[in-house]
Structure formats: structure tokens, C-alpha cells
Prior knowledge:
The chain has helices at residues 137-142, 227-232, 249-252, 264-285, 295-310, and strands spanning 7-12, 17-23, 35-41, 49-54, 59-64, 69-73, 86-89, 92-95, 100-105, 115-120, 125-130, 148-152, 162-165, 170-175, 180-185, 196-201, 209-214, 219-224, 243-248. The chain is of the alpha+beta class and 311 residues long. It has a domain at 264-309. Belongs to the major royal jelly protein family. This is Yellow-f.
Amino acid sequence: TTKYPPSLIIYDLKTDNLLRKYVFPQDQVKEDSGFANIAVEDTDCDKTYAYAGDLGKPAIVVYSWEKNDSWRITHHYFNPDPLACDFSVKGHNFSWTDAIFGLGLSAPNADNFSTLYFHPMASYNEFSVSTEYLRNQTVADDNFDASKLLGSWGPNAQSSVSFVDRKTGVLFYSLVNLNAVACWRTSNNKYLMKNQGRIYMNEETMVYPTDIKVDYEDNLWILSNRLPIWMYGKLDLNEVNFRVFSAPVVHAISHTACDITPRSDILEKFVNKAKNITKDIVAKVKPNSSTTTKPITVLLTLSCLVRFLAT
Length: 311
């Protein structure tokens, strides 16, 4: 039962005053519409845009603060993948056909446009589009190829929510079937499984991660709530069913494929490995000689290792 139509409610967080309430026009809300997530592009206050994903009737409703107007954009990348509609969470198997769900905005480029990273929930793929093509419906309709397929998370890896940390450029996203939260560094040109990191995975505490955000103090926040158990089973009131996780972003991505910090310990391991390899080679070539090697030999070996890894 719908008591009130979908609306954007905008507050001044310093005063808690309601600045504006914008009700989505009737022609932009369909019979099966459901707006679960919203991404806000607000680097220029007057030219703030909001992007609301319609998971029930695939589309993005774009709202302009300056114009106090909105428009509805459709694309086949917003649709659910029929091969990715089967879910299994904590022993409960079900089928969902949720369309566009995860929305994450990058920092703006030189032209003040962001990249919107998005995906349907019933999907294994991540997509992207510049907001240059969303801020005007005519431009969006005339540039259907502006949306790009980035790549896949792999089998059984459907994702609900996502969020981009604009400082590090890391995209965080949930993996609802795997009880996990993963990441991808958007500065990486290739969206491959080996370039994606798992930052947390737990079959008890991370059941159905349902919201992800990064605050202004560079902390990552994650909410898990066991929604499928409530829908298809029964919550055990003696257990903890709702959890909020938090960690500094740099700690969360440390030692993953998304790590952005220089890793002196990794270099140390390579140097030690190079020394050991050099000693083995010298021992084989001159069995009776000392295994002490000159620094140049170690450096040459390390250089070979680095070239090998780069390939």
C-alpha cells in the first residue's frame, strides 16, 4: 500500500531545517516502481543533481536542484539479468528480479562531471556512465552507447548497494550471496576479478549487507540486516540481527587489491627472495665458493623479478 508518492526530502544538516520537498511527477513513477537507493552529485551546491534508481521498473530518475525538475532515463543496462535472479542467503533460496540498485559516484573530472558506477541487483556485472549524459534527457537519449560494461564480479556474486570513496577512488560494493563486502579501485583500467578485493566476509555477522557509505572523515560504514531471513523465515530474537560496521577506509582496503598505500613489506619480501635465488644460483655454479654475492647481482635479480611480475 502506497500512502505517499516517492519524494526527495532535502534538509540543511546544520540547522535541521527542511529546505525542499520534491514529489516525483506521476509520469515518472510506474506501477511497479521502487526507489531503494540514491546518489547525490553535490560538488557544486547550486548545480546539485540526485540520481534515484528504480529497481521495480528499470530507470534512473534524475533531479536537478537548480531547475527543481526531474526526468526519467531508461537503458537496457538497468534491467535485471534473467540468469542472475536466483539467490541463496543463510539457507533461504529465492528469486528476485531487482533492476538497477547499486549507485556510486566518483569525484568530478576537469569538466565537473562525475562517473556513475551502477548495477542491477540481479546481475553479475558492473556498468558506468558519465553524468554528462544523465543531466539532460535529450543528450541521454541521443547517446545510448555512453553507458559502458566494465566487467563481472564472477558467479554467485550478485551485489546490492555500492558507494565510491571519492578521496581514494575505491568503489565498495556488497556481495549478498557471499555475505561479503568487496572493492575495486576505479583508477584501475581493467575490471577483472583479480583486481577486486574482499575487505570483509562473515557468514554470521555479514548476512545480507544492505548499505554502504563513506563519511567526511574517511570512515567506511556498512549495515547488515538479515532481510531475507525475515522475509522467508523467522528472525531469532535471541540473536543479533542488525549490525553496523565501521573502519577507516585505508585500513579496510589494506592488503587487498584496492590498497593504495606504499607497501614496504612487500618490497622487503622481494629483496629477500632475490637474495635467496641469487645464493642458490651461485651455489650451483660454484659449489665450493662462498655464497656471499655482490649487491649488483641482487639488484639484477630483483629487476628480473619486477619485470616478470609486470607481465
